[in-house]
Design goal:
Blueprint lengths: L4 H13 L6 E5 L4 H12 L2 E4 L2 E6 L2 E10 L5 E4 L1 H7 L3 H22 L12 E5 L7 H11 L5 E8 L2 H7 L5 E6 L19 H10 L14
Parallel strand pairs: 1-2, 1-6, 6-7, 7-8
Antiparallel strand pairs: 3-4, 4-5
Length: 223
């Protein structure tokens, strides 16, 4: 069990630093992944950025993703072909579902990123971070979008995840670093002593404290 997300980030940072990643860029999935990633970026002296993902739910079942939109320039749509086929969606129907979710993606981009463009990961080691994963779906689509941006290496970093999620994610990256894989994965909050829901202000505070150039971030971020 981790004390909080910052504790998890410091422990993950030790494991990742041992890999000696070359030219790392740390990418967090907001909100929960941000305090974890902040500690990793601080330890590595790396730049920190966000990967904003918006799920596109199936008709009548919004929790089941038919696709996801990943923020970028331009935003990328990653399709879940198996679910699309199961629902018999044609291109026009899918386009309507995607268009419905774009405003929320744009709202989150405006709040978290403003006018800043995503950091380039081309030729670098991209380290994608979240605070845990039960299924790994969100991290999977984010990883696929990042892979298209031509990093030299892609590392996925998680404090805790189900064995199934780790196995699934291992096909999406060069390496998955996961500190704990409990065989009977419970809700993510059970693996932290302190696990409050972060708000936008906390995310913005951590991003403001992260160094824009690396090498000078302030450790010890709040969870």
């Amino acid at each position: 069990m981790f004390h909080d997300r910052s504790d998890a980030g410091r422990r993950l940072a030790t494991e990742i630093a041992a890999l000696a990643p070359q030219d790392p860029v740390v990418l967090a999935l907001p909100r929960g992944g941000v305090p974890v990633a902040f500690e990793i970026a601080s330890a590595l002296g790396a730049r920190l950025d966000l990967v904003i993902v918006r799920k596109v739910g199936a008709p009548g079942n919004p929790e089941l993703a038919v696709a996801a939109i990943v923020d970028g320039n331009p935003p990328e749509v990653v399709l879940n072909r198996e679910i699309i086929e199961a629902y018999g969606l044609n291109d026009d129907e899918l386009a309507v579902l995607v268009a419905r979710e774009r405003p929320e993606l744009e709202r989150r981009r405006a709040v978290y990123r403003g006018k800043r463009q995503p950091l380039s990961v081309k030729g670098k080691t991209a380290i994608l971070v979240d605070d845990g994963a039960a299924t790994g779906t969100t991290m999977k689509v984010a990883a696929r979008a990042i892979r298209r941006r031509s990093p030299a290496q892609l590392i996925l970093a998680l404090p805790v995840a189900s064995p199934h999620a780790v196995s699934d994610l291992s096909h999406e990256a060069d390496r998955v670093v996961c500190l704990s894989q409990p065989p009977h994965f419970r809700a993510l909050g059970f693996h932290y002593q302190e696990f409050h829901q972060l708000d936008d202000a906390e995310v913005l505070d951590l991003m403001a404290r992260a160094s824009p150039h690396g090498k000078a971030a302030v450790p010890g971020g709040k969870s």
